[in-house]
Design a protein that fits this description.
Strand content: 25-35%
Number of helices: 6
Radius of gyration: 18 Å
CATH architecture: 3-Layer(aba) Sandwich
Number of domains: 1
Oligomer: single chain
Structural class: alpha/beta
Helix content: 25-40%
Order of helices and strands: HHEHEEEHEEEHHEE
Number of strands: 9
CATH superfamily: Vaccinia Virus protein VP39
């Protein structure tokens, strides 16, 4: 199975070994965990539902800090508390029982036409907050600078997406990833994504990570 591109494997069939630290947790991915944890702690939740177990790093840190975490994943190999899809919630999963629902890099694995249905379920699960991370179709050059003992400053220059396609084709990666991204098509433009989200939630904050603008985060509040 491991010789099969992960995009061709259904999420429920991805082996647990896929999430091994050395192969999955790049420096860029670790940044997403930092932003998730930072935004969660801004909201001071006591109970968090994490949809998509992944490596378990975020849940482990939250638990270490006294936050009760419940997990939901379609993949039983990851040993979530509840096995099921965000499109079809498992029996027994409590409704409106969580101060925050975390759904990071999950929704792009379902058809975009089903996103509103998923957001409806997210709204039903949370008592107040929801934190979503979505990938963005982006291509840019980054410049980072840091004076000793200060924070890193990041500047970036966007490049044409057409150039990204050419380079991907030259590297033999032009077949697509099998998932959608913000701005990967007219149907999934940032404007349309925001409209769909705003039908179910109040958008408190939305931003791209400065150090990796291929990730967009949405801090949401239940309407």
């Amino acid at each position: 199975m491991m010789n099969t591109p992960v995009a061709a494997i259904k999420p429920e069939d991805i082996p647990k070994s896929y999430y091994d630290f050395s192969s999955y947790n790049s420096k860029q991915r670790m940044l997403t965990y930092w932003y998730q944890l930072s935004m969660i702690h801004e909201c001071h939740p006591r109970d968090v539902l994490e949809i998509g177990v992944g490596t378990g790093l975020v849940a482990a840190y939250l638990r270490h800090n006294g936050i009760h975490v419940t997990t939901l994943d379609i993949n039983s190999q990851l040993n979530p508390d509840y096995v099921g899809s965000i499109l079809s919630l498992p029996e027994g999963l409590p409704i409106e029982a969580f101060d925050m629902v975390l759904c990071s890099r999950v929704l792009h694995h379902i058809p975009f036409d089903d996103m509103e249905r998923a957001l409806c379920n997210l709204s039903a699960l949370t008592k107040r907050y929801c934190l979503i991370t979505l990938p963005v179709n982006d291509f840019r050059v980054y410049v980072m600078s840091r004076i000793t003992s200060s924070s890193i400053s990041t500047l970036s220059l966007p490049l044409p997406l057409a150039l990204k396609k050419v380079l991907a084709s030259l590297r033999g990666r032009g077949g697509g990833s099998g998932v959608w991204q913000i701005n990967s098509s007219r149907e999934t433009s940032e404007k349309k994504v925001v409209v769909v989200i705003a039908r179910r939630f109040k958008i408190i904050k939305m931003f791209r990570m400065p150090e990796d603008q291929s990730h967009m985060m949405f801090l949401l509040e239940k309407q």
